């Protein structure tokens, strides 16, 4: 089957520009006017806008756009380490590296055509190999569909002669009206590791997660759909994921925010991080194996959006299948 039509549509919907540091950025647009902007610095999505131009991702007004420093906002990619759970720098090195555009990537199973998309590639440098001596190929596809859905598909292949393990997260900064006006659904009854209590394990007791103070948690073995309900803006973010068993929820709150040079003192009120992740049980790849982790973000508006998460029963949410499961590792 020829994909020339889809490729032509994609070319028309893609624009490559450069930021003030001369680093390339890729702007994806669909026919309705929605857009996404991806920087080759970190392979990081910096913007995701509706067709009316409303920004859906948070970026701090004090964000530092000066590689190799990470940018506070958007969707940084945490690899091969999340947080300080290892010997590497905070959240690993992938978010600080310059990626390249891949012109002819290997095909992705069950990824529909007709989207505006860009394929990026990261391989380790000599310096990377000194601090993390594992050879890999990290392919990232960012797609914007006709309905405005934003999809990120990561494929990490072991091209090393020995196994290696890693943790991973799409560290997504959502733009919200006010942290006191939102709640997160889909995490009820789950166990979580609380980073504010030395990663001690607790069980979520509420029907929904609301916010009155700093939160820094890793929810374990979550279902494949999570929702962020913003009452003031009457909209719901729906997060669908596959190959990503965990969910990180983070808001630094007032005290911690004041210690962060790249976050305004009051900006914690307008942001919430909810990440699709693989942290508690690191992914292990044998030589030649490939792991796939997929994230799909969508948005619904109106008074009925609060019931969006309830359209799927818990059982259905757990069985939702949109990409390669974490345990389905390909080997060549």
UniProtKB/TrEMBL annotation:
Cellular component terms per the entry's GO annotation: cytoplasm
Entry EC no(s): 5.1.3.15
Gene Ontology terms, MF aspect: carbohydrate binding; glucose-6-phosphate 1-epimerase activity
Signal peptide segment: none
EC supergroup of this enzyme: isomerase
Pfam family, one: Aldose_epim
Regions that span the bilayer: none
Keyword Isomerase: yes
InterPro entries noted in UniProt: Aldose_1/G6P_1-epimerase, G6P_1-epimerase, Gal_mutarotase_sf_dom, GH-type_carb-bd
GO BP term, example: carbohydrate metabolic process
Catalysed reactions, as listed in the record: alpha-D-glucose 6-phosphate = beta-D-glucose 6-phosphate
Key words, A-Z: Isomerase
Binding site for substrate: 72, 90, 95
Family (UniProt): Belongs to the glucose-6-phosphate 1-epimerase family.
PANTHER family, per database record: APOSPORY-ASSOCIATED PROTEIN C-RELATED, GLUCOSE-6-PHOSPHATE 1-EPIMERASE
Protein name according to UniProt: glucose-6-phosphate 1-epimerase
Organism lineage string: Eukaryota, Viridiplantae, Streptophyta, Embryophyta, Tracheophyta
């Amino acid at each position: 089957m020829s994909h020339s039509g889809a490729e032509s549509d994609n070319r028309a919907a893609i624009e490559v520009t450069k930021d003030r540091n001369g680093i390339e950025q890729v702007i994806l647009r669909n026919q309705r006017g929605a857009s996404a902007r991806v920087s080759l610095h970190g392979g990081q999505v910096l913007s995701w806008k509706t067709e009316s131009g409303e920004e859906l991702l948070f970026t701090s007004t004090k964000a530092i756009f000066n590689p190799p420093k990470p940018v506070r906002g958007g969707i940084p990619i945490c690899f091969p380490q999340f947080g300080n759970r290892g010997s590497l720098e905070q959240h690993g090195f992938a978010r600080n590296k310059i990626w390249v555009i891949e012109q002819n990537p290997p095909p992705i199973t069950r990824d529909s055509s007709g989207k505006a998309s860009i394929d990026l590639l990261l391989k380790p440098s000599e310096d990377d190999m000194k601090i993390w001596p594992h050879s890999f190929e990290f392919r990232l596809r960012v797609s914007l569909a006709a309905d405005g859905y934003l999809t990120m598909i990561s494929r990490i292949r072991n091209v090393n002669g020995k196994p290696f393990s890693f943790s991973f997260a799409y560290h997504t900064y959502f733009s919200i009206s006010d942290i006191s006006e939102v709640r997160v659904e889909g995490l009820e009854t789950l166990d979580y590791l609380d980073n504010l209590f030395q990663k001690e394990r607790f069980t979520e007791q509420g029907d929904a997660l609301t916010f009155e103070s700093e939160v820094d948690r890793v929810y374990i073995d979550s279902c494949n759909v999570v929702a962020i309900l913003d009452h003031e803006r009457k909209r719901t973010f729906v997060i669908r994921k596959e190959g990503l068993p965990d969910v990180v929820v983070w808001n630094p709150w007032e005290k911690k925010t004041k210690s962060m040079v790249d976050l305004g003192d009051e900006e914690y009120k307008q942001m919430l991080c909810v990440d699709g992740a693989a942290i508690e049980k690191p992914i292990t790849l044998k030589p030649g194996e490939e792991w796939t982790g997929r994230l799909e973000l969508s948005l619904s508006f109106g008074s009925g959006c609060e019931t969006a998460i309830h359209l799927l029963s818990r059982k259905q949410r757990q069985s939702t299948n949109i990409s390669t499961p974490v345990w389905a590792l390909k080997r060549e």
